[in-house]
Amino acid sequence: MNKKIVSTLVVFAAACIAIATCSNMLPKIAFAKSAQAQEQANEERVIREQNAAVEAAWNKHDAATLDQSFVEDCDFVNVFGEWISGRDKLIKTHAALFAGPFRESYKHFTVEKIRFVRPDVAIVHVRGRDTDHDGKLLEGDLGTIATRVRPLPESFKPGGKPLAP
What we know:
By secondary structure, the chain is α+β, with helices and mostly antiparallel strands. The protein has helices at residues 3-22, 26-59, 63-66, 87-99; strands spanning 75-77, 83-85, 106-118, 121-131, 144-151. The radius of gyration is 25 Å and the shape is elongated.
């Protein structure tokens, strides 16, 4: 028999044995990926729900609700380039803006991109566009982009504990 044919048959036989041996692993691998995809889809849904809550709080000029998802020792740089450290200061800053120059400010926030850098940490890019009181986008406003780095809610972490990096 030709050496090339024998080599091909040996490789084919080895591949068949490998597939037969490992075939019981395929459903486990597929299930793990689908479970991970489902978990990520749930996390994205929560992020989008939080974005909608932020939009609603902005449009009600409710600083406390707007900033409730920030950690105590947060760092925030606003559209004016002002660096605000700490949630309490952030709430006071937003409350002052809503009582003054932003008292007639309304926004629509769109999640542009969600990127998971770890299973429990997402970077979220959000575009904020000006609207009128009824939510109609104002012409000519291209909006601003905000980047939020956020740990995911405890309920989406296995066993309610942060995942290892």
